[in-house]
Amino acid sequence: MKAMRLVPSVSASKWMMALPLLLLGLWFGGMGWGIDAALRRFERHTTATPPHVNPNDSWRQARCFIDPDAYLWLSYTRDLRQSGHWRLRHTTADNAPYGREMHWCHLPIWSLMALSAGLEKTGLSPPLALEIAGRLLMPLAGFLLFSALYLYLRRRIGIGAAALCALAPAALLFWDFHPLRPDHHAFQIMAAFSCALFLLFSGFGWTEKGKDRPPLRLFIASGICGGFGLWFGATVFYFTLAALTISAAGVLLISPQPSHPAKSQMHPGVWRIWAWAGAGTALLLYALEYAPGPFPPRLEVNHPLYALSWLGIGECLFLLARWKHQDRRLSAPRLLHAALALLAAAALPALVLWGPESSYLPRTTLMWRLHARHIHEFLTVRAFAIQNQESAVGLLLRFLGPGLACIVGWVGLSPKLRLPFAARLTLAFATPIFLLFTALLLWQIRWRSFAAMASLLLVVAALWALRTESAPLARRSAQALVLMLGLQWLVGIAIGLHPLFLMAKVSKIDPLYFKALQLRNWMVNLKEISNSTPVRLLAPAEMGPAAYYFGAGDAIGTLYWENLDGLAAAAECFADPLPGARAREVIAERGITHVAMNEGAQDALMFHYLHTGRDDQAGAAQTVGGALTGIGTSIPEWLRYDEPLNQTVNPPLYTFVPAIGQWALTRLPTRLYVVDAPPPPSESP
Questions:
Q1: How buried is residue 502: exposed, middle or buried, by Cβ count under 10 Å (0-12/13-18/19+)?
Q2: Which residue of 80, 144, 451, 546 has the smallest Cβ count within 10 Å?
Q3: Over the stretch 490-503, which tens digit does the pLDDT of each residue have?
Q4: Helix, strand, or coil here: 654?
């Protein structure tokens, strides 16, 4: 009878353990379905011929994505499958007619290939299968990654706390796992966080005296995650590696000899193992991308020099740990050893900062100008908040609130809590990482999600540390942190659901979604009207990936560092002073048939600044780009604005808003021009 009475409680316990997984599935699956359903409902209320809604409009047959990178990942996937190869090293997605090199990580491409191939087995056509795969990749990745996080943490900080440590960031970072944004950023974030998380519970080389060795599997797991982080995005992950190095060095330096030296000992060799695991993984993945060659000297992506730097970092930490906690002798061989380790660690950042620009293209003048002024993710927090009409303080609290509470709580409560040595080390390790990524976030909004996960790392460290203390103050502090995570989760859900609710009611749509719909329509209409006639399009940089994906035409300039030549050509054309003699030559050289430009001054100013380095509205108005946007003089004589063509490609769209019973008129603010037979390019003497 006693055994029978235990069955309901065991069953309930299993349900409680599975509930967070169910909630994660509902969140990612529900948002994926909800966004698609809301967009489709909005489209059913939209037409170019009110009040008649034609369900057979060509653009209704294709789904849109909301980021240029998404179209590029999907295009790479399609091209790679059609090629019959398993790696893509050259693309014609932009810089027409020459194309360019492609160095992005292949994991998202291979994942999209696998998903689309599986969907084709169900009877879907290849284009539709690829489209659905693009919608599935990020929600599926989010569910798997945050489920793994919950399962890993539940035995360390408890089921309830672990559940919220997975659910809160899943809602907070939904933009990185958005179904309309297949990309590698989410993989970068989770690889960096996992690398830090495994180190957090590793003991940093300390074990009880007499124990054979520390938990090497955690150092190895951390290194492997870091190796994948370098593969997903080497430059981005190197900031994480630097933060981990600073925190680990700080822990080794400030950690005093334990209160009971007889019970603890340091194993410096774990830092070598960590570095070997990370460097080895990075080298294997580099070989997966490039072997058997050629091996281009590209430092923007994973490269053996990153592995060398990590090996140098590991050796430096090994020497520091040995010197601080075992043997303080400073002999000449040891100093030489340390100098060589520092040299290996510093070689990569030195080459990135001061080496040849040809090996690190973001340092070129053109890319520097682009990143300094015109890339959204490089805005400061304050500039981003102003642009999005929200409070910078509110944004910081939403993403970093629990981490900031940990800092305040540790300062105020540390003297009152008797945390053990290991617990204090975890807090000492997580705190600098959080502070460093907070500083990066204040510098550039692109670090928002990394800073949020650094905040979570500090929260996990605090929750684990508080579990080691039985005092009521520790329990109340842990409960307060869990409540803050719960609030963060609910706020994230509300922010995610509110715009979907408005869009489903056809009362309001996020401008980003609507621009994506309009751009999709524009490209599909252009493809249809061209009737298989080749189109080569000089257009604003963010339009290029969509043009290639939808088959509307070949693109020239995009914002990717691999496409430096294409972006330079676009800037040279649009920034050319009227009457545009040089622009006409470039257009002839590249066989451009159409030119598109957004209305207003923004793009003309951008291209003028990229080409000249001058932020001069009067000067930009007298350029080809300025004339095409409407802020300058009349357009060059070799370009023609075709009104019927523009009405067909970019007709006014009317959306019926049920709440007011009226049609709302919108139109993509983009003009399309036809190139009137430019002269052939002059031959070289």
A1: middle
A2: 144
A3: 999 999 999 999 99
A4: strand
